[in-house]
Structure formats: structure tokens, C-alpha cells
What does this fold into?
Amino acid sequence: MTRFLLILAIVVACTTSYAQDILTTRTGEDILGKVIEVNATTIRYRKADALTTGPVYELAKSDLLMIRYENGTKNIFTGNDAAPQALTDAELYAKGKADAAQYYTGYKAAGTGTFITGLLSPLVGLIPAIACSATKPKDANLDYPDASLMKNSEYYRGYTQKAKKIKSGKVWKNWCITLGINFIATLALEAGH
It folds into this structure.
């Protein structure tokens, strides 16, 4: 029974760690929490460490690039029409992170490979999970929206760092799912004996 509870705790931790809103500021900071209200000029939210009883924080919309909600939808507060030379290095870095969150989908092969090998065995699935999460995505898989922006080192750095984080998150989420599937299959087999 304790083995069951341990595996269940791991599966729950893996799946709930992604169930938060992410507010990305113009400086590139990601704030994990829960958005309570979006009005004409401000966003009200609670931080991740106190989602239900913590203090309510307020942030001006002008300080945000994007909100990525736990259900996968996004609010983007900057357009792609800003000229790159008009942005500071910090803004370019933050724009790179925000664009990666919106456009990067090149993690699918890494996530699928981890999922398939993890179904064979969670221990075998650890090999591609560790390898894929430790490497940056290939430039050919970045899916960036504007090649001219990728020539800027700060934008490129922000985009690739965020893409790596997304790829790593998807890989580990898939590994956790296979761990849960294997655990349930083991329980079913043990119950049958």
C-alpha cells in the first residue's frame, strides 16, 4: 500500500506542477500563480505558493508580455510589429521567451520518444528523458516567427532558453505519465494474481 501511495504522489506532483498560470513580464521574469482578474490596465493574481489564501498582487498590463493560462490559452500584450531596433536588450530577451512560449512546438519528437520508451519501462524511459531535457533544441526545430529577430543575440538567447524549458517540461511530463501507466498496469497484474 505504501508503494501505491508513493507512486500516486509522484504522478500527482508531476501533473499538478504544470497546473498554474504563468505571467511573463517585459523583463523576462516568469511569475507562477493564478490570475484572478484582468481589467483594462492591470492584472490581479496570487502567487503559486499561496493560490487560495495568499495576498493578491497587482501588475500593470504594460509590464507584461504574456499570460499563459493553465488550460493552454494565452493573452499576449505585445504585437510582433515592433521594430527590433526599438527594443532594449532586456525587452528583446523577454520577447524571445514570449515568442518561444507561443510558437515553439519542436519538442514533439523528444516527448514522443520519451513516452514510447517509458511505456516499455520507466527506467528505460529515463535515458531519453535525461538526454532530451539536457540538450537545447536544434535550430531547425525552433519554429521561430521572424528570422531577422533570431539574428539578435538577446532575442535568440531568450527564445532558445524558453524553448529548452518547454521541451524539458514536456519530456518529463510524458515520463511521469508513463510512470503512472506502468504503476497502474503493475497494480492490475498484482491484483490478478
